[in-house]
Amino acid sequence: MIKTDILIIGAGPTGLFAVFEAGLLKLKCHIIDALPQPGGQLAELYPKKPIYDIPGYPEVLAGDLVDNLMEQIKSFQPGFTLGEKAQTIEKLDDGSFIVTTDAGTKHQAPIIAIAGGLGSFEPRKPKIDRLFDFEKRGVEYMIKDPEKFRDQSVVIAGGGDSALDWSIFLADVASEVTLVHRRNEFRGALESVDRVKELKDMGKIKLITPAEIVNLKGNERLKSVVIRKNNNPQEDFELATDYFIPLFGLSPKLGPIADWGLEIEKNAIKVDNTLDYQTNIPGIYAIGDVNTYPGKLKLILCGFHEATLMCQSAFQKIHPDKRYVMKYTTVGGVTGFDGSKKEAPKAVVKAID
Amino acid sequence: MDVKLTIIDREGVKHKVDAPTDMAMNLMEIVRSYELAPEGTIGVCGGMAMCASCQCYVKSNHQLSEKTDDEEAMLSEAFNVEDNSRLGCQIQITKDLDGLVIELAPEE
């Protein structure tokens, strides 16, 4: 069981910054995120795109903002459960909560801060008959353990970075890699596109374009895929394969959190914006893009503000008898849980003769 | 100046709406501003042509701007794509769009 003061669900900018504000109040945080890396949509969707409305940054790349936030919170030593989705919540008699992930990891905290953005990112599934029948029986949407594909034949569909990168990677692992894409053009880093071309010329990747998978065949397990070339049913052909991996990117879904008994409106969690962004369940807060209230704006800068007020409220809940007044970091410095201390240099006073 | 658009929502209901040409808005934003699709089901990526949640079918004979490479690439990965598919976020509202008829593609 992982125990912490504030359990944050979502490692996007809002969740990450909450660690900082909590740290100033000596509260420890642990973050759960369905993606394998922190940063939320900034890291997953648009790491190389600029953002222009972060106060104090005329321009910052989304990926750099995440790196900076990670640096800013480092000394507060947040824990991470990455690549797992928060699934269920249970309230204990002492008022604390236990959140269990889809992988079974349990976390206990008196305060839950949902900073889940648009939801957890789930693979986009193409509309192919019997796709669901073969899930985990030859159809995979994510590659968690590449060794599984050693000496197996693999068909990958998709035209973005993940389709390209996994084709390149599996070319050395699988016995056969076939990449199928609807167009001749790919949308990915130039190096990846060039590398796939090299591997194709070396005969290590079979490229089939423009084409798509229109059918799956097999009994208990997937045995083959039916590929349609040039959008022409006359050109359909069957290709035997051990695995079919459609990689059409990820799309966010609110997911299991929607069933936690929270008040939901417009696919977002209703919170009290007059005070502390608490939900209808005391002790559970929702901050950033995942919440809604009159006048809500889904902006990173608003998420930072919401995270800050949430932490003050969490502090009072955890320490009802402690007196506290907010202190400026310029005055109080930043003392990390790792023993580090950052503070403003003392001004030297020197007599003038 | 406003233009008049007809937007058929995902339930098949027709909406005639006024869209401003002077607010640098795109079609996806018009749909959101009139709440013709539930929040969180359209414009998920914010308008970067990085999701296909604003996919729509163009039902009238308007000459629209050419697709950019980004839009072309996203549509090639999207589902339910037809010859008249476009991403709403890539269509800027201009006076040429007066009378445009579009239908929102099903939610993925």
Automatic annotation (TrEMBL), chain A:
<keyword id="KW-0521">NADP</keyword>
<feature type="binding site">
    <location>
        <position position="86"/>
    </location>
    <ligand>
        <name>FAD</name>
    </ligand>
</feature>
<comment type="subunit">
    <text>Homodimer.</text>
</comment>
<dbReference type="InterPro" id="IPR022890">
    <property type="entry name" value="Fd--NADP_Rdtase_type_2"/>
</dbReference>
<feature type="domain" description="FAD/NAD(P)-binding">
    <location>
        <begin position="5"/>
        <end position="294"/>
    </location>
</feature>
<keyword id="KW-0560">Oxidoreductase</keyword>
<feature type="binding site">
    <location>
        <position position="41"/>
    </location>
    <ligand>
        <name>FAD</name>
    </ligand>
</feature>
<feature type="binding site">
    <location>
        <position position="289"/>
    </location>
    <ligand>
        <name>FAD</name>
    </ligand>
</feature>
<keyword id="KW-0274">FAD</keyword>
<dbReference type="GO" id="GO:0050660">
    <property type="term" value="F:flavin adenine dinucleotide binding"/>
</dbReference>
<feature type="binding site">
    <location>
        <position position="330"/>
    </location>
    <ligand>
        <name>FAD</name>
    </ligand>
</feature>
<dbReference type="InterPro" id="IPR036188">
    <property type="entry name" value="FAD/NAD-bd_sf"/>
</dbReference>
<dbReference type="Pfam" id="PF07992">
    <property type="entry name" value="Pyr_redox_2"/>
</dbReference>
<comment type="similarity">
    <text>Belongs to the ferredoxin--NADP reductase type 2 family.</text>
</comment>
<dbReference type="GO" id="GO:0050661">
    <property type="term" value="F:NADP binding"/>
</dbReference>
<keyword id="KW-0285">Flavoprotein</keyword>
<dbReference type="InterPro" id="IPR050097">
    <property type="entry name" value="Ferredoxin-NADP_redctase_2"/>
</dbReference>
<dbReference type="InterPro" id="IPR023753">
    <property type="entry name" value="FAD/NAD-binding_dom"/>
</dbReference>
<protein>
    <recommendedName>
        <fullName>Ferredoxin--NADP reductase</fullName>
        <ecNumber>1.18.1.2</ecNumber>
    </recommendedName>
</protein>
<feature type="binding site">
    <location>
        <position position="14"/>
    </location>
    <ligand>
        <name>FAD</name>
    </ligand>
</feature>
<dbReference type="GO" id="GO:0004324">
    <property type="term" value="F:ferredoxin-NADP+ reductase activity"/>
</dbReference>
<feature type="binding site">
    <location>
        <position position="121"/>
    </location>
    <ligand>
        <name>FAD</name>
    </ligand>
</feature>
From TrEMBL, chain B:
<keyword id="KW-0411">Iron-sulfur</keyword>
<protein>
    <submittedName>
        <fullName>2Fe-2S iron-sulfur cluster binding domain-containing protein</fullName>
    </submittedName>
</protein>
<keyword id="KW-0001">2Fe-2S</keyword>
<dbReference type="GO" id="GO:0051537">
    <property type="term" value="F:2 iron, 2 sulfur cluster binding"/>
</dbReference>
<dbReference type="GO" id="GO:0009055">
    <property type="term" value="F:electron transfer activity"/>
</dbReference>
<comment type="similarity">
    <text>Belongs to the adrenodoxin/putidaredoxin family.</text>
</comment>
<dbReference type="InterPro" id="IPR036010">
    <property type="entry name" value="2Fe-2S_ferredoxin-like_sf"/>
</dbReference>
<dbReference type="GO" id="GO:0046872">
    <property type="term" value="F:metal ion binding"/>
</dbReference>
<dbReference type="InterPro" id="IPR012675">
    <property type="entry name" value="Beta-grasp_dom_sf"/>
</dbReference>
<feature type="domain" description="2Fe-2S ferredoxin-type">
    <location>
        <begin position="3"/>
        <end position="108"/>
    </location>
</feature>
<keyword id="KW-0479">Metal-binding</keyword>
<dbReference type="GO" id="GO:0140647">
    <property type="term" value="P:P450-containing electron transport chain"/>
</dbReference>
<dbReference type="InterPro" id="IPR001055">
    <property type="entry name" value="Adrenodoxin-like"/>
</dbReference>
<keyword id="KW-0408">Iron</keyword>
<dbReference type="InterPro" id="IPR001041">
    <property type="entry name" value="2Fe-2S_ferredoxin-type"/>
</dbReference>
